[in-house]
Design goal:
Blueprint: H1 2-11, E1 31-33, H2 43-47, E2 53-57, E3 62-67, H3 76-80, E4 86-88, E5 103-108, H4 111-116
Antiparallel strand pairs: 1-4, 2-3, 3-5
Bound molecules: iron/sulfur cluster (SF4) (2 copies).
Residues 33, 38-44, 81, 83, 85-86 line the site of one iron/sulfur cluster.
């Protein structure tokens, strides 16, 4: 008990949960993609300085993924998207111990994106 009290005296006590605070509007948080607008042009993929964006195409679908193990939330991808399909939200960054939860994937549903995703 004494040890705990000594520690509290030394470090203080958190009286507010910092994760419960609402980020400001300008807070650079998670990214989101409008799958109906994205044309899978790959401009964001080639622009991302840390290769955090991938576009995977299978026979049936095209998906755009953000790898938050790499992303540094610079917002360049949203700036360069010619369709304004990427929006950088002020949603707080993900905290997890599970690496796979740091990959976020969006289905591209636009016709152009679908066409890019198939062999003609
Ligand atoms: S999100 Fe924008 S820049 Fe990225 S592939 Fe889609 S249309 Fe192109
Ligand atoms: S915010 Fe920056 S680092 Fe993250 S995916 Fe977009 S361009 Fe890459």
């Amino acid at each position: 008990m004494l040890i705990i009290l000594r520690k509290i005296m030394k470090t203080g006590v958190a009286t507010k949960d910092s994760f419960a605070l609402t980020p400001t509007k300008k807070y650079r948080g998670k990214l989101t993609v409008d799958g109906a607008t994205c044309t899978a042009c790959t401009v964001c993929v080639t622009t991302c300085p840390v290769s955090a964006i991938t576009i995977d195409t299978t026979e049936n679908e095209t998906r755009l993924s953000f790898d938050y193990t790499k992303c540094m939330y610079c917002g360049l991808c949203a700036d360069v998207c010619p369709e304004n399909a990427i929006i950088q939200t002020n949603e707080p960054k993900i905290c997890t111990k599970q690496r796979e939860q740091l990959i976020e994937t969006f289905l591209i549903t636009s016709e152009t994106g679908d066409q890019n995703g198939t062999d003609n």
